[in-house]
Fold these 2 entries.
Entry 1:
Amino acid sequence: MTNDTPFDSNVYYEDDADTAQILEKTVAVLGYGSQGHAHAQNLAESGVDVVVGLREDSSSRSAAEADGLDVETPAEAVAQADVVSVLVPDTVQPDVYENAIEPNLDPGDTLQFAHGFNIHYNQIRPPEDVDVTMVAPKSPGHLVRRNYENDEGTPGLLAVYQDTTGTATEEALAYAATIGCARAGVVETTFREETETDLFGEQAVLCGGVTSLVKQAYETLVEAGYSPEMAYFECLNELKLIVDLMYEGGLGEMWDSVSDTAEYGGLTQGDVVVDEHARENMEQVLEQVQDGTFAREWIAENQAGRPSYTQLREAERTHEIEQVGEELRALFAWAEEEADEETEAVTADD
Ligand SMILES: NC(=O)C1=CN([C@@H]2O[C@H](COP(=O)(O)OP(=O)(O)OC[C@H]3O[C@@H](n4cnc5c(N)ncnc54)[C@H](OP(=O)(O)O)[C@@H]3O)[C@@H](O)[C@H]2O)C=CC1
Ligand SMILES: CC[C@](O)(C(C)=O)C(=O)O
Ligand SMILES: [Mg+2]
Ligand SMILES: [Mg+2]
């Protein structure tokens, strides 16, 4: 374990992991979607005995079987396993838990998650005689798979909610190593911290904040009479290049790389756009994550058949920027090559 850093959290790497803690066990991976296909294939290629749990009529069955994996129903997979990795969507986990997992769990088994939503908000209440752990890659699943194939790592989080065996941390670390996360680094946290920061991050910045910023800036330019293609390039396309610089070397590398004009304009106008009201709104978003308001809303939305979600998705899909982007990306050879590579990687992975 390494903690010669200025941070409070422990950070683990491959050398800290005793992979025997997982190589000696059978892992049931429930779900073969974004995270499921990556965990199942990475575990299997690392030498772990893996069984994938999918419904009889699951659209993912053929992909998992084509990838050479043993596929059973979720109930049968859990019955065979020592570690149950719950990688079906958060919204169906309570149902899958009740019907397939709980009746087939043995004392000393492990319930393993990639996100803490259902444990933290008490939608799943495991028995006291099993370990409950989390290994949460900080990345979309397809990159977890791609990085593993390229001998690279994906940073991840590790948390233990319940440790009845006394070896929960060691086993979770071995799991993190065999899916490739410990190659990059695994940060120890809690279910509460992972759940609340993950939800806040995806709502305020990664998925919500960024898309709203892009759409509103695009609309501002187009409504002022500028061409949609200029608006697309300025407000969406170039964002990737700017974020790549921040990813590589922090805000500093980005500021160093742009012109002084951009730096001065950015430093003076950034806080005008994302002002103290945006900050207050962020605090409200965080509060609703912390006090369970968002979780209750999302659970109720699913129970009602997702009426708002369906409408919001449709509005996003039909926004003008999507049409403009599709047409523009098709004009550029580099985009076509990248899209082809991407499709090949995803098709190969799925
Ligand atoms: N997406 C990501 O990159 C990240 C996800 N996570 C977490 O990982 C977990 C999994 O998320 P994600 O990978 O996005 O999930 P997906 O939506 O990609 O999962 C789809 C898979 O789940 C199966 N599935 C759906 N419903 C059921 C059901 N009722 N019974 C059995 N199988 C079912 C689907 O099979 P079928 O064909 O039968 O529908 C499919 O194989 C979540 O906890 C999420 O928060 C964490 C970090 C990042
Ligand atoms: C950013 C979205 C995410 O939290 C992720 C890929 O980490 C998710 O829930 O998919
Ligand atoms: Mg996340
Ligand atoms: Mg998330």
Entry 2:
Amino acid sequence: MTECTSPLAFCVAGARPTTAHRRPARRCERPLLPHPSGRALISPLRRARLSMTATDPSVASSEGSRGLPSVLVDILQRKEREVQQLKADMERAGAEHPLRKRMAQAAAGNICSSTAFSGAIRKPRGTVCVIAEIKRQSPSAGVLAEVPDVRFYSQMYYKAGAAAISVLTDEAFAGTLDDLRTVVEHQKNYRGNFPGPCPVLRKDFIIDEVQIAEAAEAGAAAVLLIVAALGREKLQQLLQATERHGLEALVEVHDEAELEVAKAVGAKIIGVNARNLHTFEVNLDVCMSLIERFPEGVIAVAESGIKETTDAWRLRDAGFSALLIGELLMRASQSVKHGANAYESSYNQAFGIIRAFQSKGSVKFGPTTLARGYGMNEGAKESLGYLEM
Ligand SMILES: O=P(O)(O)OC[C@@H](O)[C@@H](O)c1c[nH]c2ccccc12
């Protein structure tokens, strides 16, 4: 594959899905929430389906499994338009535009770097932490939760002991940059506590430095960089830009080839996304096999589809330092609306899940239900304490 400078060029050059990559039709499309900006949302799935009906051989992938699924291609095309719009706005506003100032500061090397994100999620072997995600909906799962106020999640995640918070800011997930700002502001309430405020990850499809400047301006500590969406050259540029802006990057991979790219550009935090971009199916074995190829010192994050406490503990035992969890926590918080009793309130369920995942239970001995209620990150005594004969 030849390297392209633009992520869009990357898609167009060789990343359109072939029929082999098309997601099976069995997945039903659920309604999407209106975007908080008030703009009408076309479901990415619907758009993807429309584009799938066109059989243009010129856009067929020649790269086998490296071809991007059309949902991602659509999102990246929209991102390109958003970035152009943002740049035009910055141009019009003149030198006083906060992003222009920030870009200039970064270019001059005047921004101090923060290690708040890696500091929070780097754990010794045998310990795992949770990066809890705020995600209203997703192209694969439809609506996950109604979230009138993201501060509810911000508070719950902090109190449950999440190490960091990930906030989706893309419209396909009904997220906004304002959500991220609100969470960052809310976390400031915990200044002076131990642990302090959760660092916040901007979860979006970053294709340009200006989005990194935006993330920094909004108070994020880290951004997501997706190898599949960028290609090596662009990834390297954006990784360097991330450092200039004082942030850290979670570099996302799906397979061995992408992991090699992440390693080659010197990523310090690498996330293995267990969700197959083409089928949306989740396979945690991908995490288990790729962790063996992680270099020493790189922080390993397992992403997507983690639902069972025993899976969390297995990933921990395999060497993952952090688990990125969205859907499970978002859904757990909605149970109260569906007639759950007081003991199963939304607050307690997500709270219990985070505690259980981070607790030191053992896959062999620890009853996971007790870990949900009583897991205290206390070490081996928990599993011995709950040992049932
Ligand atoms: O909701 P889940 O299955 O727990 O997954 C969370 C996270 O991994 C997922 O939201 C994600 C991983 N990489 C992404 C890239 C873009 C948008 C979303 C994602």
